[in-house]
Amino acid sequence: MVDNNTSSSYSASDDNLPKIDLFGGGNVDLRTVAPLYGVASEEEPDYLDYDIKGRGTVERMFLYSGSSYLTGILTGGILGGRTGWKTAPSPRFWLRLNSVMNGAGKLGSKWGNNAGVFALMYSLSESLLDHFETDKVLGGHQAVNPVLSGAISGLLYKSTAAPRTAALASVLGGFGAGMFYVIRGQLDHFYYR
């Protein structure tokens, strides 16, 4: 219940904050109550939370795995549909459409799942390397963590294959992550001049 006399009688010197009568217990000055509820006073600035390292682990995980899954399922679906169109057992439309849909579903789901799993391993290894500040230990260059994350992800992804295959996947993962880092840097430089 707001006291009409007090709510209409405050002035600019009171910072336009009314005094409220709560249950007849007296007037409550909002300037004294505001800091309890996280409202900044005029004397101190109100800052936004900012993580200097960028996105958190869970945000990276969802971003990388989701976008990689979508890219993989679209790319695999297009290639599988093209293969299904070429290898259709009959030139009739419905049989050819069925072959396209089967090929797109088979290859699209395979590529999407593989890309999503690889991106999940990449995001977790990148977050782990960021946590231990590996880039500062190994020379301070920003490209160290993405390249190492790609190499670790490639190694883990093909760890059940032969050792040479796992080593090759590690090199390809590191190279791919390094190229993506360079391309992303060039695009950032191009768009944010």
From TrEMBL:
Domain of life: Eukaryota
Gene Ontology molecular functions: protein transmembrane transporter activity
Entry's transmembrane regions: 165-183
Keyword Transmembrane helix: yes
Keywords: Membrane, Transmembrane, Transmembrane helix
Cellular-component GO terms for this entry: TIM23 mitochondrial import inner membrane translocase complex
Membrane topology: Multi-pass membrane protein
Alphabetical GO biological process terms: protein import into mitochondrial matrix
Subcellular location per the Swiss-Prot or TrEMBL entry: Membrane
Keyword Glycoprotein tagged: no
Entries under InterPro entries matching the protein: Tim23-like (IPR045238)
Identification of the protein by name: Mitochondrial import inner membrane translocase subunit TIM23
UniProt organism field: Nannochloropsis salina CCMP1776
